[in-house]
Amino acid sequence: MTVWPTATLVSLTRAPQYGAIASGAKAPIGPRFVRQTDIASGRIDWSSVPYCDLDPSDFEKYALHRGDLLISRLGNGVGNAAIVREPHNAVFAGYLVRFQADPLKADPGYLGYALQSQDWRDHVASYRSGAAQPTLNAKQMGAFELPLPSLPEQRAIAATLVSLDDKIESNRRLISLVPELIRSRVEEHIAQGASDVSVSSLAKFVNGGAYTKGATGSGRMVVRIAELNSGPGASTVYNELDVPDDKTAHAGDILMSWSGSLGIYRWARDEAIINQHIFKVIPTGYPAWLVFDRIDAVIDVFRGYAADKATTMGHIKRGDLDTTTVQLPREEALRELDAALEPLWDRLLIAEQEVLRLEALRDAMLPELLSGRIRVPEAQEVET
Questions:
Q1: What are the TM regions of this chain, as residue ranges (predicted)?
Q2: What is the DSSP letter of 70?
């Protein structure tokens, strides 16, 4: 195994900089304003980035450039990092710190991936332990020590991981576009004539069970609302229980959380056990893509019901499924839509599953490449 020398983040970058103090706005009144809430999984989610009222004279000071590294310094997201791949005429907020790679010492893409590593997470945890409000300052960030292969190797490592992330991002775009297309086509046909039906008539809504009790730690994942929102994590429960099929999540199944954080989801992971507070939504006579879209169309209505009933945790009742109605296109229009949209719905599942596989591959390769246990052949050829 190759053993790389090590270096601190601050030794590989220019002087770190804290972001601008400004107010975000929906209207395009100024530059885009990247906040710590816009950073997830090593990337900036530009769909959520607002504009801001920054004084034009301060723009150059805070303007983002390709290759900039942004790290969150406060709150539950402390330590979240992202590399700027597309600047978008943007600046960054005060709860972020910017590091810029010294081009003679480090590749920004390589540093960006080092800031997604377990070593980085451990470094952040060493400062946030026991803190009521976790914080991380620029000096603490800069003290992070990371492996330092040669520049050609750094670039090759980054290129290998970027190729996976590009495929992931392509699939994510498809995942976001298909539901939008389905909604657009459904509403187009509803405008030409529609019928009102109750949500409860669309499907059978089967509640999960209390399956976290006596968990064995092995077997199938027990799907709670946390797993629906964020996927499996350190607190995920596994159990070897045998449960009925209507309380089992298979790839492609529709799930709906009805308590706490209400939402509608399509399960794409391995077979799992459905916990309480989650409905398995089993379509009854309607295509799955339509059932998902129609529930999604009124999910904010259900969230309103839950907010009105909130004590410790808001929820809806089965009666709300009966009294809440949705519009459906006419029967002949539905047949036409199903022929066009069912293949897209199936393709959507393929994209969702491919994202999971590619993310798992990238996450497995990241520590191996950073440690030198796996070498990139192209970089080895450059060095020899």
A1: none
A2: E
**Size of the chain, expressed as the number of residues it contains:** 384
One-character DSSP codes across 297-366 = HTHHHHHHHHHHH-SSS-B--HHHHHH-EEEEE-HHHHHHHHHHHHHHHHHHHHHHHHHHHHHHHHHHHH
Q: Give the pair of three-digit tokens for residue 211.
A: 């399956």
β-pairing verdict for 272-274 and 220-223 = parallel
The full set of domains in the chain, from first to last, is 6-146 (3.90.220.20), 149-193+330-384 (1.10.287.1120), 195-328 (3.90.220.20)
How does pLDDT run across 234-252, given as a tens digit for each residue?
A: 899 999 999 999 999 999 9
CB 4, CB 149: distance < 8 Å? yes
Q: pLDDT digit string (tens) for 79-99?
A: 999 999 987 899 999 999 999
pLDDT digits (tens, 9 = 90+) for 160-187: 999 999 999 999 999 999 999 999 999 9
- Judge whether 241 and 234 are in contact, CB under 8 Å: no
Rounded distance, CA 361 to CA 357, Å? 6
Amino acid at 32: R
Rg (CA), the chain: 24
> Do 243 and 297 touch, CB atoms closer than 8 A?
no
